[in-house]
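Batch job 17 of 40 flagged for manual review because the log was empty.
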Amino acid sequence: MKVLIFYIGSLIATIILYSCSPKNLGKLTSSSKDSIWGAFEAKNANGIWMEYLELRNDSSFTMRAGTDAYHIYSFGSWTYRSDTVVLNSIFDKANVPVKVYDSTDSAHSDTLIIGWVKDLNGDVLKDATVFINGDTTKGYMPVFNECRFTKRQVKTIKFAFSDYSSNWLTLDPKANYLLPILQTNISLDRFVFLKNSKFLFQGTKLVQLSENTKENRKWDSVKDNNAL
């Protein structure tokens, strides 16, 4: 009997199954039994913070943690080798997918304008900040109409949000009106970005291998699972 319990910061994370296509991230759903490699759940001492994790046979995972009023989540891919599980979320917090659509505004032919940043739902991401030409010391916010530049002045742009950002993107020098779209329809403000997060099985306990803490964290088993 081995159980995987997911720890995020000072919180234990809850997890549920989810489709891992960044363009198809609507409902969080549970998978069929045949597709699950391992399913794990736990809660804190007072039972308010619940957690659930599913590891699927197709090497994808989904996690969800929280209460009735608040939750966080993640999904991506996992590997298991030599008693170690490694989780990587589908999104990299330093390279979230933003696609910039070029348009032409004949009324401002000598100006480059960057429009409001939206997601695939059409919702405006009001905290979006734009950096230009490799310089992250000065940002410009589209919602405050700060993104008007002389045409050909801007060669590369980067979009930054509350806790994540895009990579640097090269612009078409002919473009003078840009429509940036974050390529997901879920809120990334509650998304947990995981990169090579490692967990080691030791008997019936799971140990989170962390470089940021003096001691690796350990948890007791809370649920039987014959898949492990």
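Reviewer: the log was empty due to a logging misconfiguration, but the result itself is present. The chain has no helices and 19 strands. Unflagging and moving on to job 18.
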